[in-house]
Amino acid sequence: MEAANLSVAATGVALPLGSEACSIGPSPGGVVGSTPGGAALPGREPPFSVFTVLVVTLLVLLIAATFLWNLLVLVTILRVRAFHRVPHNLVASTAVSDVLVAALVMPLSLVSELSAGRRWRLGRSLCHVWISFDVLCCTASIWNVAAIALDRYWTITRHLQYTLRARRRASALMIALTWALSALIALAPLLFGWGEAYDARRQRCQVSQEPSYAVFSTCGAFYLPLGVVLFVYWRIYKAAKFRFGRRRRRAVLPLPATVQVKEAPQEAEMVFAARRPVVAFQMSGDSWREQKEKRAAVMVGILIGVFVLCWIPFFLAELISPLCACSLPPIWKSIFLWLGYSNSFFNPLIYTAFNKNYNNALKSLFSKQR
Q1: Phi-psi category of 245—alpha, beta or left, where left has phi over 0 and alpha has psi -120 to 50?
Q2: Residue 351: C-alpha distances to residues 31, 204, 308, 359 (Å)
Q3: Which of 207, 243, 256, 338 has the greatest number of CB atoms lying within 10 Å of its CB?
Q4: For this UniProt entry, what's an example GO CC term (predicted)?
Q5: By C-alpha distance, which of 94, 93, 108, 25 is closest to 63?
Q6: The dihedral sign for the CA sequence 37, 44, 2, 214
Q7: Extents of the domains making up the chain
Q8: What is the CATH architecture assignment of 51-250+298-362?
Q9: Cα separations in angstroms, 216 against 189, 325, 343
């Protein structure tokens, strides 16, 4: 997936900070180092400004945190037997894709951004490997989010029919489809000759610039899963609203004309009745299943919200650019690119924040190591 240069001016010298990675669609050429008069400085790397050093430091920290946090989630799932079941295999699949993004995609993207003129000096073969892993891992990460949202939706709305056996089959099928579709999108240019990633004359490595491939890849990698997650969240919201309305209707109950205060041992319940009226108001605490479904709904909502905020600016730019033959300023393209990368950092944080089992497992893991 291609992003443009993030140009930082320092004493009249422009430093490119753009990447070809995680970009699907055409973009303009990079910015090269120049003098104030506009003359290029061949063979000379531009100096690093304080702002550039700060930005690079933050990006390196983002890469390290994304890799370590997702790796920690994977280790926790592998070491805790209770996690060797659905839906943790979906979380593990997401963590695998995010670990690969941090290990294989983001570092080479940063190296490419720091090179003058975004020149690729690592050869044609490594260029194809990098671009393929870029599209594969980013697409798999996005589709894994959609798979988790679908699993939570079926758990909430069809908890009687969606048994553990059905969840295992559904999750295995979703994981297989996720990686198969991601591989198809990533390898389509190589398998079907759909454009060339490496330009030896200009020393550039970028995703295929074919407009048809840009539309195909952006729709398959983002807009289709975006439609899935938005539909799922709307259905979860409707189901929650229906259940809340049903509980409110049940709260009005006919009771004898006496004052009652009733307490259940397992579920807090208070009933208030006047001496003469026949109608009383009943307020009951949530059952264990309702609390679990509520946490799942909140987790899905935050997961989808962060996913949309991280990726929609980048993919809007990547879809609009080839259709209107226009381009955003380079700095905004790079900001959108790394904002999309950051979704791989937020995913494990959201899982662990809304799952007490993960928190307890992480605590026990660190306590045993001590």
Answers
A1: alpha
A2: 40, 38, 17, 10
A3: 207
A4: plasma membrane
A5: 108
A6: positive
A7: 51-250+298-362
A8: Up-down Bundle (1.20)
A9: 11, 17, 22
Inter-axis angle of helices 124-157 and 224-250, to 10 degrees?
A: 20
The DSSP code for 103 is: I
Check pLDDT > 70 for residue 317: yes
AA identity, residue 350: I
**pLDDT tens, residue by residue, 26-65:** 443 343 344 344 444 444 455 568 888 999 999 999 999 9
pLDDT digits (tens, 9 = 90+) for 324-364: 767 777 788 788 989 999 999 999 888 777 777 777 777 77
* Residue pair 127/190 in contact by the 8 Å Cβ criterion: no
Candidates 251, 247, 253, 285; CA nearest to 268 is: 285
Does residue 327 sit in helix, strand or coil? coil
* Residue range 222-279, pLDDT digits in tens: 999 999 999 988 888 787 666 655 555 555 445 444 444 444 444 444 344 444 444 4
Tokens of 88: 């943790």
Close Cβ partners of 2 (under 8 Å, ≥ 6 residues apart): 19, 20, 21, 23, 24, 25, 26, 27, 206, 207, 318
| Distance between CA atoms of residues 202 and 107, nearest Å | 22
CA-based nearest residue to 131, from 243, 2, 245, 230: 2
56 neighbors 336 (Cβ within 8 angstroms):
no
Listed range (180-184, 205-209, 288-292, 319-323) with the worst mean pLDDT: 288-292
Q: In this structure, what DSSP letter does residue 160 have?
A: T
**In angstroms, what is the C-alpha Rg of the chain?**
26
Question: Is 96's pLDDT higher than 80?
Answer: yes
End-to-end CA distance of the chain: 42
Closest CA to 337 of 64, 20, 107, 94: 20
DSSP H or E run through 245: helix 224-250
Distance (Å, whole) CA 157 – CA 154: 5
